[in-house]
Model the fold of this input.
Amino acid sequence: MKILITGSEGFFGSHLVERLVKKGHKLKCLVLYNAFNNFGWLDSLSKNITKKIQIITGDIRDENIINSAIKNNDCVINLAALIGIPYSYNAAKSYVDTNILGTLKLLEAAKLYKIKKFIHTSTSEVYGTPKYVPIDENHPLVGQSPYAATKIAADQLAISFHRSFDQPVTIIRPFNTFGPRQSARAIIPTIILQILNGNKVLKLGNTDTRRDFTFIDDTISGFEAILKKKPFGEVINLGTGYDYSIKDLVKIISKEMSTKVEIELDKKRLRPKKSEVLRLKANNGKARKILNWKPKYIKQKGFIAAIRKTIDWYSDSENLQNFKGDSYNI
Done:
């Protein structure tokens, strides 16, 4: 299958590129242009992978770039988005421009060139603090941050194109995915990197919040499953159905790293009170039924195995070097 992946240079994107090349798909990889000729995590992939992909630099907000990139493909997987919640409090317009208007341009181009499959990536943050758990796809959507609000809008645009133009759109909604290559601003890398940096007192925000942490391998297998099906017009959660508090994470990670730590509240890491999402726990029944998808890294044994893989990756000296100097996070 000929596939355009936007946001291909990021955490999700690089893992997806790696997996899909091995499965024999022909990929165009859109990378956000920068003056340093840097292709993000794609630069870390083996030459056996990168020699088989076509990298295009550009921006999903640019209509000419998008039209050129989408043409002659069978499928679009949209991973491109501004994702940092804290930054969205200060730069809401940037999130509107990229997450909403950028998605609109992709949808319009996909419609123009009659793309056979459009997979749009959402986020569990769109549910806000839940009215019930586990959270299914019928749960109300609540924008508790500018980031979440723009993702809700993008999701609704995607669904509207399916309803209005019969466009073959599927929305995939991952819960808190973690693993190698994740940004240091995410909570699991933050804990690991602070410990690797020798900190005995970890600076963290709210440690009572709970999240459904899903290992990257399981999330990527969900994308693969959608490529084999035609769940058009559907929104599909990808999560384990288990959740852990941030305090739980600290205990598990510090034990696996054979160190004792304490926690210190860092007010810079707190969200505004009404913006904090207190709990996210997925109902993945729809993914199991429609996609025949089952996460492998579940329950305590599976979760700890995934944490171990993540710790091992960040502990590698070459990988660790990529995160040096980021004082906010480590």
Summary: Residues 2-177+213-238 form a domain with the Rossmann fold fold (CATH 3.40.50.720). The chain is about 40% helix and 15% strand. The two ends are 41 Å apart (CA to CA).
